[in-house]
Amino acid sequence: MTSDEILTSARALIMTGGYNGFSYADIAAVVGIRKASIHHHFPSKTDLVRTLVVRYREDAEAGIAGLEQQVRDPRRSSKPMRATGPSASRTPAGLFASAPCWQANCRRCRRRSQPRSRLSSALRRHG
What we know:
- Helices cover 54% and strands 0% of the residues.
- It contains six helices and no strands.
- Helix 1 crosses helix 2 (24-31) and helix 2 (24-31) packs across helix 3 (35-41).
- The chain starts with a helix and ends with a helix.
């Protein structure tokens, strides 16, 4: 269990500060063990990071394999795929639905930086 705690702590520290942004003393303080105990599991910082990268890669490969099982192949489907869920609102029209006119003094719309209801209407005016 301790090596898992060490790896979890190291991962968090690497994500926030990078490879040079943490030491065994930092990990020991987070996990609540002595530095010598970390050296017992991982003789060097390089060994610790290598193990962390191997586990990260295994997790990523397992996640991709899970996605491949759950998500249908759009090339084999007769129905078009539609965006659903939280990502559906991140379409270009959704992102810019309340964005101001991209030209401050537009001659075509005669407005000064007022919000538009849809990106497509703004593009039609400025196209």
